[in-house]
Structure formats: structure tokens, C-alpha cells
Design goal:
- The chain has one domain.
- The protein is 75% helix and 0% strand.
- Helix 2 packs antiparallel against helix 3, helix 3 runs antiparallel to helix 6 and helix 4 runs antiparallel to helix 8.
Amino acid sequence: MTTAALPALVALDIPNPPLAQRFRVGVADVATLTLRELYIWFRNPAFIFFTLIQPVMFVLLFRYVFGGAIPVNIHGGYVNFLMPGIIAQSAAFASFGTAISLARQLQKGVIDRFRAMPMARSAVLLGRLVADTLRVILTVILIIAVGYGVGFRFSNGVGPALLMIVLSVAFGVAICTISGFVGLAIKDEESVGSFGLVWLFPLTFVSSAFVPVASMPGWLQAFAKNQPVTVVIDELRSLALGGPLVLHAWQSALWLAGIIAVFVPLAVRAYRQAG
């Protein structure tokens, strides 16, 4: 009895697609995952509450409960002092969704399934970042609208007002890169949520967001004046109301560029090692 010879296996030399084609495919993958993240967000009431409703509550509480007890020497009163801080805080707090979502996807094996699919490897993180950027933009616009309802007004022209929005969104995106690394590194959803409160709350409250830094104890002022949240908020306030722009502008740019330069590679490394 003879055994039929098996056909020889021939290795096929398949050339890499052109760079332009790979770029188009990568953009399509990023767009697909961006839409996926947005659908999840809109279908999750907890995300909507935290991202949109909670900042509105902060505006109303500080405007009408604490505002009368906090003296500020600024045109328009406390509401004009408050709103740039609330905008920056809301943009930063929106990053909670980034860390929690990535940790949840790791726990459920979603990221492992993404890796097994024929898609651009960068699409998972870029799609998440684009969705977060859109979410931060929506949050900032909503907070400004609520601020106008309670008395906040821009007094430095349309151009600086638009620059204020751009800077607040850039700040939120920079914080999202930190949250992305935290979510991928810690991996546990509950631990990620607790850790976010540990590092983000002190930064936002020990700043010029809600009270003048000069009202803090002397030993705390040095930290409050030079940390990134205060630097960005002071620039937002100058853009919205008028004031010195150059000093806090380059300080803000350095802080944001430094955060992105450090935490984007860390997030990419954590993504490659996660699983």
C-alpha cells in the first residue's frame, strides 16, 4: 500500500502594502474604535453622570454655597474666578473614564481580542485618545454654557476665549495620557478608581482653582503656585478675563509637553506588556 505524496508547501512572499494604503487603513481602524468608545460612553449612564452632571454640580455648589464666603479681587466677582478652575478640573476628571475603561477591557480580555484582529496596533490607544478628546470638548462646552447661566462672562475677546477652550482641552488630553498609563499598569478597575482619587484630587484642590493661592499657608503656596494645574488655570483665567499671558503660556506648554512626552511612551509600553 502506497501513501500519496503530500503537496509541497510554498512560502509566498507577500509585499508590504504601500505606506499611503497602510495610513488609510490605520485611520479607518482608529475611526472605528473611536466610534466604539463613544457608543459605550453614551450607553453607560455612569459615564455620562460623572463626565457631565458632576461638573455642573461643582459649578452650582461653589457658585452659590461657597462663593459668598471666598473674597476675590477680580472683575466680575467669584464666578469669573471660579469658572476657569472648574473647566480645568472637569477636563482632568474626564480622564477617569480612560483609566477605568482600559482596566475593564484588560480584565475582560477585550484588548487581547483586539490584538488578534487584523488592525493597526496603534488603533486601540489612538481610538481611545480621540474619543476622550471629543468627550473633553463636549464637557468643556457644557461647563462654559452652565457658567454663562450663572453669571460667568468672557471679557478678553473672542480669540482668547477660543484659545482658552483649546488649552483646557489640551490639558484634559494630557491628563488622559496619565490615566491611560495608570489603567494599563494597574489593570484592576476598582484599584484604578481609587488611585485616581489619590493623585488627582490633591492636584486640583491644592491649586488656584477655587481659592487664591495667597490664602493658603506659606509652606503650601510654593507647591500650589508651581504645580501644573495652577499654571494652566492661571493661563485660562488670563485668556478669559485679561491679564499677563506670556509667563503662564510657556509654563503651560512645557508642562503639557512634558506630561505627554513622559506618559505616552509609558502607556504604549504598558499596552504592549499588558495581558
